[in-house]
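Weekly sync, protein design subgroup
Attendees: M.S., D.O., the rotation student, P.L. (late)

Item 1: inverse folding check
M.S. brought a backbone from last month's batch and wanted to see whether the design step gives back something sensible before we order anything. D.O. pointed out we never logged the input encoding, so this time it goes straight into the notes. Structure tokens as presented (204 positions):
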């Protein structure tokens, strides 16, 4: 069964970027500290990353995050989602208008202009097709940014929420939660390392 999993790194004070993020500045001032765990040699961090990418049949991201990962300081052949796996999943971008050009043209991009629910539905179709080809259940992963994850939670689109709590206080930046619909979470798993506390919740 395909699940919709929101998976995002966040500071202890609730920010998913530092101040002034953008295509030329990535995660903003100090924001790189949020993803230290993803480059750690700690075996638990490596396991969390490996399991997250292995289960991904399709990945949803917002336009601002797409502009960062496709920007000049963004992903390349050695970095980015699934870069060290056998293959990368399909990517679905929520946007008001598709970009005129894509730097990472070797990846499988779909641009959905009719809203987040339609983007999630498109990603579910891609994940289910990948599951059928591979003979195993794969999920849709909402990787961000914060507004995309928050909107998906508000809309009741998320089955599971995984937070990678980085041991940093950024002070300002892009908040993950800005109010919205009340949700009850049930903790399913927690893994603590020196670089992050990885917590997985079922969303009820």
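Designed sequence read out in the meeting:
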């Amino acid at each position: 069964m395909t699940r919709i999993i929101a998976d995002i790194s966040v500071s202890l004070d609730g920010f998913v970027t530092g101040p002034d993020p953008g295509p030329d500045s990535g995660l903003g001032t100090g924001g790189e500290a949020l993803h230290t765990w993803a480059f750690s040699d700690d075996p638990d961090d490596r396991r969390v990353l490996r399991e997250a990418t292995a289960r991904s049949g399709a990945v949803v991201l917002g336009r601002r995050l797409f502009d960062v990962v496709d920007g000049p300081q963004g992903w390349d052949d050695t970095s980015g989602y699934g870069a060290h796996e056998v293959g990368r999943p399909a990517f679905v971008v929520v946007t008001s208008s598709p970009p005129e050009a894509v730097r990472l043209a070797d990846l499988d991009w779909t641009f959905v202009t009719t809203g987040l629910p339609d983007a999630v539905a498109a990603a579910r179709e891609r994940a289910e097709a990948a599951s059928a080809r591979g003979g195993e259940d794969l999920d849709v992963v909402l990787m961000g940014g914060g507004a995309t994850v928050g909107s998906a939670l508000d809309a009741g689109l998320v089955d599971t929420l995984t937070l990678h709590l980085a041991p940093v206080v950024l002070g300002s930046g892009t908040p993950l939660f800005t109010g919205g619909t009340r949700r009850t979470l049930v903790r399913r798993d927690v893994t603590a390392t020196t670089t992050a506390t990885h917590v997985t919740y079922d969303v009820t």
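Discussion: The chain has a mean pLDDT of 91. The longest helix spans residues 116-134.
Action: P.L. to compare against the previous round before Friday.
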